[in-house]
Each structure stands twice: as C-alpha cells, then as structure tokens.
Design goal:
Number of domains: 2
CATH superfamily of the largest domain: Glycogen Phosphorylase B
Shape: globular
Structural class: alpha/beta
Largest sheet: 7 strands, parallel
Low-confidence stretches: 192-197
Radius of gyration: 22 Å
Distance between the termini: 14 Å
Number of strands: 13
Helix content: 25-40%
Strand content: 15-25%
CATH topology of the largest domain: Rossmann fold
C-alpha cells in the first residue's frame, strides 16, 4: 500500500482543516500518516478526533521558532521516520513544520536517491503587504525552501502572486481556502434577529438562556485562538466604547492569552458584556443565534471562522487584511476596518446597529439581513466541491 505523510507543527490542525484531503488520499489508495507534536493541541482539548480515521500517528518534537537550536531534533526525528516508512508522498502545512519537513525530505533524498513528491500548503505567509518588518525575516526562508517543493499551494491571491516569483521545483497552485462544507449549514441560516423567539434545533443550546442575555440585547460573536495575531484585545477595548448600548460580545476559543484578556475585561468592568465561551466544536449552532460576527485579526490566510459566519448568513465586521478582503466586500457583506484602533471597530458596530450618528438607535435589521444574504452567496465560491476538485487534480498530477 502507498503511504502519504501529513505534517503539522501542532496536533489538531488536520482534523480541523484537512480531513477532506485525508479522504482523497485514502480514496487514492494511500495509508495516511500524520506527524505532529501531539503534546501541543489546538482546536480542541485532546486528540480524540483522530480516533477511527485510519490515520497513523507519529510524535515529532517540534519547536515554534525556526531559529531554535532544537530544530535539529525535529528534523532528525522526521528524517528517521521518512527513512523507516518510505513514504510515497509528503504534504506539509504551517510555516515551522513546512520548513522542517522539506529539509528532512531533502536529506533523505541525498542519502537514498529516492525522490518523493513534497507538497506544502501555506495557510498565510507571515510576510504580506503591511506586515511588520520583523515578519519579512521569513521571506528568504520560504523562498529558499520552495526549491524543495513540488507543489506550493496557496489559499489567497496575494500569497499566490508572490509565490509565483519563487524558484519552486514544481508548480505553484491556488485553491479557494480549505473548502467549506456548506451542507452542514443547511437549516442553520440566519433568519431573524429576534433570536430568543427562534425555534432551536436538536443539539443546540439557547445561548441567551445559558448566559442570561436579554431578548433585546445585541449579540456580537468572534471565534479564534487567544493569541496575539487574533487581536481579541482590540475588541475588548472597543466594548468599553460601547457601554451605552445593550450589547454582549461572545468570544469562542481558548489559548495562552486568556488570563490577560479576562483581566482586561475585569479592569474595564465588562464582565456582563464580554463572555468567554471556550472552545466550541459545532460553532455554527451558536453563530446563527447571534447578530454580527466580528474579527479584528492581524494576520490571516483565508480564515475559516469568517467563512463559517458567512455560511450561516451573518454580517461581518473585520480587519481589511489579506484573505479577509477576498471574502468580505465592504458595505455588501459587512464592514472592513482599516487599521486596528478600537474606536474604528466601535464606529462600525454602531453603524451596523443604529443610524450613522449613533443617536437615534433605529434598528437596521433589513440591511444586516441583506449583508448576511450577500455573504451566503459569496461563500459558494469557496465551497468544498470546488476545493476538492482542485486537490484531486494536484494529488493526481504527482502519481
């Protein structure tokens, strides 16, 4: 049986974003192996989502920084694994594991002379238009390792145009994100802003009842790891500017910045206005009960969180950065914010829920519904069948 190796720095990435690729590889006759640091878990609390998938797991002691001396350890571990298993295809994701996997594969080739196709999906380069200067240190690294890459796969237009100038060993490919399974959202589309009166579906929790949110309260929501790039702090600052409104902000996620964020909420006396909901597996069941999705992230490739909000028909207020600006059309699907000033997010929130001057508090429900409907149409361009077809073509081209 042929063997394919997927590589990510942290575990949780494949079950969250790459299970369709696993299915494709298995259909093509591959036994799928997955190398990751299973002690560093994201998108969940354990590795149970891999149970019953047929995926063979391998622990690799990845480090976060490419400049750490311990990088050699992870390269050696992957190299040993590749020599033992003799994989027929390697597909790596995430910057750190992308570098380590390609370096290990090249070392194996030099030792054995056996050439194995190597794919790397960049889910958003660290360097991008407007990125801090320090981020561009990764540019020469990505450019250099592209020469060890048979298929360099990009998920947004900016990265794709930049990667086309790299000395890639094979070809540069563009896919429309990781592919949205729009079927799972059927029946969960946003229909009304009188959320409390909506009939809930099986398995749904009434979030207004759970968190004691009033029937007339505005409910904002976001989804994302508690990490600097997700920029949750700017929305907490913005909520302080919106204290005169009956408004609640739900943050779905977890991570190393949680204590810092909670302390800021307490400092601003926003305990009743900001809710930490933790990690939620079927987040779309919560999304449809809210009024607007907010996403102030500083760096994205093609954010699934925004795509899920669009799929249920929510208007979106988000930073106008790479990836997001391909999804949301300003004023049609919501509002894009230039920069990361809390007041700018507060202004857009007032605008979407009240008249522009923020004084008369006239509901703008029809406009929000139109934005949500526009997003539902737009997201069809990023549907799973479109991405599935492209990935099948890419994998097939390597056989």
């Amino acid at each position: 049986m042929k063997k394919a190796l997927l590589v990510t720095r942290v575990s949780g990435f494949v079950p969250q974003f790459e299970m369709n690729n696993v299915k494709i590889l298995q259909e093509f006759g591959y036994e799928v192996h997955y190398a990751a640091d299973y002690n560093t878990i994201v998108y969940g609390n354990d590795n149970s989502r891999l149970d019953g998938t047929g995926i063979v797991r391998h622990q690799i002691d990845f480090v976060r920084s490419p400049f750490s001396k311990e990088v050699k350890v992870s390269i050696q571990q992957l190299e040993k694994l590749m020599l033992e298993e003799k994989f027929d295809l390697i597909h790596c994701h995430m910057p750190m594991s992308g570098v380590v996997a390609r370096k290990a594969a090249w070392n194996v080739y030099k030792k054995t002379g056996r050439k194995v196709p190597v794919l790397y999906t960049a889910h958003g380069f660290h360097f991008y238009s407007g990125a801090p200067l320090k981020n561009w240190v990764y540019y020469p690294i990505e450019r250099f390792f592209s020469r060890y890459t048979d298929r360099l796969i990009l998920i947004n237009e900016e990265d794709y145009n930049r990667a086309k100038k790299f000395p890639v060993r094979g070809s540069v490919e563009r896919i429309m994100g990781v592919g949205m399974n729009l079927g799972k959202f059927e029946g969960y589309e946003k229909q009304s802003y009188q959320v409390a009166s909506e009939e809930l579906y099986d398995g749904e929790t009434d979030i207004r009842k759970k968190y004691g949110i009033g029937k007339e309260s505005i409910v904002l929501i976001t989804v994302g790891e508690f990490a600097p790039d997700k920029n949750h702090m700017v929305m907490i600052e913005a909520m302080r500017e919106l204290k005169d409104l009956d408004i609640v902000y739900i943050i779905c996620g977890e991570g190393r910045m949680e204590e810092e964020l909670r302390n800021k909420v307490k400092e601003y006396s926003l305990e009743k206005n900001v809710i930490f909901a933790g990690y939620i597996k079927e987040v779309y069941k919560v999304l449809r009960q809210t009024d607007c999705f907010v996403f102030p992230s500083r760096r994205e490739g093609m954010p699934v969180a925004v795509m899920e909000a669009m799929s249920v028909g929510l208007p979106v207020i988000a930073s106008g950065i790479r990836g997001i600006n391909e999804l949301i059309d300003h004023t049609k699907g919501g509002y894009l914010v230039d920069g990361f000033e809390p007041v700018d997010y507060a202004v857009k929130i007032r605008r979407i829920f009240t008249e522009k001057d923020g004084k008369s508090a006239v509901p703008r429900e029809k406009r929000r519904l139109e934005m949500g409907e526009w997003n539902r149409e737009r997201i069809k361009q990023f549907a799973l069948p479109i991405v599935d077809k492209k990935m099948r073509e890419i994998y097939k081209s390597l056989e």
